[in-house]
């Protein structure tokens, strides 16, 4: 039995006259892993950032487990509501956004301690658990500047996981990494997939999307052009635009 | 009248006391200017218009006029409205506010230069706007301007000589007292210059130490 | 706000402002001269000159300008230097700000790309020629704004000569605060004049900076 877990209804967004999202509908079930692919400027990151209200929609609805995220509320209540729901939505950024003035431990424990009132002992246990998961326990007291890009991103994932989110959003998590560092991050994401974490992944890595995801969305110019299982989208796309994009992408990235 | 430095040692105690007060006033005003700078910067960027506008006017006035004039305003102005503060306190407030305005300008620019991703990173974890500013933005912004704020601190030390004009018995006024008894201005002012230079060197060494420690954590 | 009082005393403040302007101009000229000499000494090939330059900068930046002024004005007669308060003010403040300007100029010269010097030298220019024809013209443009910051500080710094009784703006304000018990009015009046002076100088600096950028 599947329940719709994340639900986006009639999402639209414009910056001035520019319409970046046009009437998008998407449902993600619990434990599902959805990849969003498409050329840059297609609106895929904007859609992802609309889910946790970083870039609020102009119109449309976003729901998580029966709670509407982008409810219309008076400013003060809206703030509190958004802060609350964001605790359930983990996000991983292209440029990591680790806090440089805090150690790895500080980065991971900040929000759990401030927002969930964990004691120091609980927080320390949590850090160790999360860092073990991403294989970086030995870096616990380092500052982010001492880590490689791949390590930074793994810490960023651990930081998001420490809030025990219901869903994880990945915004081109490996795009800023040197090629040889991509795999270690992909491994961590695969591991999350094996644990049935609900994930929405904006990515340029077709191989990774094909091997991990249950569903793939192809977006272009603010609309979902085509969606389906990876086997269909990557091997046998119906739409001309999808075929074009994949062909160009293949030509540029080889293999 | 030639030079005779032999009179200086007999006023050693007076000068030492003055030096203690100079250091005390520098530390107190330095602390005030540091935290005042943060408060002013946050208010200037995030407070409602009704607070922001008078703050801008205040900063404008304090950056465009001499410190000495401001000290007169604070010392005599407070007396005018019935607040008779000890000269030391008036001096600390005057110096502290003056440099708080300068620190605030540094911190404001630094806050605006903090990567937008830091804000987003914190907000996606569920931190509120206030929590994000307090725990993520301010610590980074302040760290980044420690070196120029250190320069302000050094300027503050030297400008602390000005509070002698409102009667704080610090190094400069202590020297003036000794001079009024011995009529040896050259000797005493030179001795005092040496004292300031010495404190200055110590302060610079201290600031370099702080900078190194902060650099290590970045 | 006692506007009547302000209207009555403002002519005296205008006179005082003229003195502040005179002080500022003369101090700027002396400061730029000392600054150029100091910078040249600090960047000289002779270690003696470098040591002299470094000592000058270190001593005058390391001690309060007020003390330097007092040594010159009150202590000067003991070593045969007799100056009136205005002269002592100009010389004391000028030599003091010169130390800061020397560092500004040196910073600007050193921030000219190393490749410029290397390119000039490989073309056969001497060290001095490279400095005069290639480095300095570029450094001049870079130093206008930071020297503007020094001059801004200098104008406010002229207030110090109130402590040796030169009748300029701050001295006048202090005297009228004492006689009228209206510190806010006197502060605003003299403060406004300081800000006008600084504003006009700021426009001049910005104009110079723009002009230097075009050529």
In CATH, the topology of chain B is named MetI-like fold
Named CATH topology of chain A: Rossmann fold
Fourth CATH level, the homologous superfamily of chain A = P-loop containing nucleotide triphosphate hydrolases
Give the number of domains of chain B.
1
Report the mean per-residue pLDDT of chain A as an integer.
Answer: 92
Helix content of chain B: over 70%
Main beta-sheet annotation of chain B: none
Largest sheet of chain A: 6 strands, mixed
When the domains of chain A are counted, the total is: 1
Strand tally of chain A is: 10
**Fourth-tier CATH superfamily name of chain B:** MetI-like
Q: What portion of residues of chain B belong to β-strands?
A: under 5%
Q: What is the CATH-assigned architecture of chain A? A: 3-Layer(aba) Sandwich
Cα separation of the termini of chain A? 38 Å
Shape of chain B: elongated
Structural class of chain B: mainly alpha
What order do the strands of the largest sheet of chain A run in, or round the barrel if closed? 6-7-8-3-9-10
Write the topology of this structure:
The complex is a heterotrimer of chains A (255), B (218) and C (215).
Chain A: E1 4-15, E2 18-29, E3 33-37, H1 44-51, E4 59-64, E5 67-68, H2 75-86, E6 89-92, H3 104-116, H4 120-134, H5 149-161, E7 167-171, H6 179-194, E8 198-202, H7 206-212, E9 215-220, E10 223-228, H8 230-235, H9 240-253
Parallel strand pairs in A: 3-8, 3-9, 6-7, 7-8
Antiparallel strand pairs in A: 1-2, 1-4, 4-5, 9-10
Helix pairs in contact in A: 3-4, 3-5, 4-5, 5-6
Chain B: H1 12-46, H2 49-64, H3 67-80, H4 87-113, H5 116-124, H6 129-144, H7 146-159, H8 171-182, H9 185-216
Chain C: H1 3-42, H2 47-62, H3 65-75, H4 85-110, H5 114-122, H6 127-157, H7 169-180, H8 183-214
Helix pairs in contact in C: 1-2, 1-4, 1-7, 1-8, 2-4, 3-4, 4-6, 5-6, 6-8, 7-8
């Amino acid at each position: 039995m599947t329940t719709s877990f994340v639900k986006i209804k009639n999402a639209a967004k414009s910056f001035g006259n520019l319409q970046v999202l046009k009437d998008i509908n998407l449902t993600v079930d619990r434990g599902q892993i959805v990849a969003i692919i498409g050329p840059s400027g297609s609106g895929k990151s904007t859609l992802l950032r609309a889910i946790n209200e970083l870039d609020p929609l102009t119109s449309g609805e976003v729901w998580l487990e029966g709670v509407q995220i982008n409810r219309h509320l008076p400013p003060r209540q809206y703030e509190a509501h958004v802060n609350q729901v964001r605790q359930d939505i983990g996000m991983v950024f292209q440029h990591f956004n680790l806090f440089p003035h805090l150690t790895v431990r500080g980065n991971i424990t900040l929000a759990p301690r401030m927002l969930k009132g964990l004691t120091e002992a609980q927080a320390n246990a949590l850090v160790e658990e999360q860092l073990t998961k991403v294989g970086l326990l030995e870096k616990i007291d380092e500052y982010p500047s001492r880590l490689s890009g791949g390590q930074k991103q793994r810490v960023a994932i651990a930081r998001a996981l420490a809030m025990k989110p219901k869903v994880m959003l990945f915004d081109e998590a490996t795009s800023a990494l040197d090629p040889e560092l991509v795999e270690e991050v992909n491994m961590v994401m695969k591991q999350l997939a094996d644990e049935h974490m609900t994930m929405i992944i904006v990515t340029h890595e077709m191989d990774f999307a094909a091997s991990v995801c249950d569903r793939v969305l192809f977006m272009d110019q603010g609309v979902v052009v085509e969606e389906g299982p990876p086997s269909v989208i990557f091997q046998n796309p119906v739409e001309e635009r999808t075929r074009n994009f994949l062909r160009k992408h293949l030509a540029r990235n080889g293999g | 009248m030639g030079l005779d430095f032999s009179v200086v040692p007999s006023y050693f105690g007076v000068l030492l006391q003055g030096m203690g007060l100079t250091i005390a006033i520098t530390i107190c005003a330095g602390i005030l200017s540091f935290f005042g700078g943060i408060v002013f910067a946050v208010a200037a960027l995030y407070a409602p218009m009704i607070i922001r506008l008078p703050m801008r006017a205040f900063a404008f006035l304090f950056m465009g006029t001499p410190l000495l004039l401001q000290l007169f305003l604070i010392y005599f102005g407070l007396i005018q409205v019935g607040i008779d503060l000890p000269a030391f306190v008036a001096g600390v407030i005057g110096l502290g506010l003056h440099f708080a305005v300068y620190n605030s300008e540094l911190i404001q620019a630094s806050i605006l230069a903090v990567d937008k991703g830091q804000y987003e990173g914190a907000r996606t974890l569920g931190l509120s706007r206030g929590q994000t500013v307090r725990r993520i933005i301010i610590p980074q912004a302040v760290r980044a301007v420690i070196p120029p704020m250190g320069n302000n601190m050094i300027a503050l030390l030297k400008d602390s000589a000005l509070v002698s004009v409102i009667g704080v018995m610090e190094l400069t006024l202590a020297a003036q007292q000794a001079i009024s008894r011995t009529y040896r201005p050259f000797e005493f002012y030179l001795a005092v210059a040496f004292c300031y230079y010495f404190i200055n060197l110590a302060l610079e060494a201290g600031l370099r130490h702080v900078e190194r420690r902060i650099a290590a954590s970045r | 706000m006692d506007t009547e009082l302000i209207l009555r005393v403002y002519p005296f403040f205008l006179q005082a402002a003229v003195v502040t302007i005179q002080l500022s101009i003369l101090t700027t000229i002396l400061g730029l001269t000392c600054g150029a000499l100091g910078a040249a000494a600090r960047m000289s090939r002779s270690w003696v000159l470098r040591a002299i330059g470094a000592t000058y900068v270190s001593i005058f930046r390391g001690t309060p300008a007020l003390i330097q002024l007092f040594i010159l004005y009150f202590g000067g007669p003991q070593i045969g230097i007799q100056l009136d308060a205005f002269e002592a003010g100009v010389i004391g403040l000028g030599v003091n700000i010169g130390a800061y300007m020397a560092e500004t100029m040196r910073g600007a010269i050193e921030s000219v790309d190393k490749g410029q010097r290397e390119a000039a030298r490989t073309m056969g220019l001497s060290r001095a020629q490279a400095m005069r024809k290639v480095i300095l013209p570029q450094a001049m443009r870079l130093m206008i704004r930071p020297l503007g910051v020094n001059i801004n500080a200098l104008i406010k710094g002229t207030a110090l000569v109130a402590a040796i009784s030169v009748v300029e703006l701050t001295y006048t304000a202090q005297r009228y605060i004492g006689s009228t018990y209206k510190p806010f009015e006197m502060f605003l009046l003299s403060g406004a004049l300081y800000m006008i002076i600084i504003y006009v100088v700021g426009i001049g600096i910005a104009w110079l900076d723009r002009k230097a950028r075009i050529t």
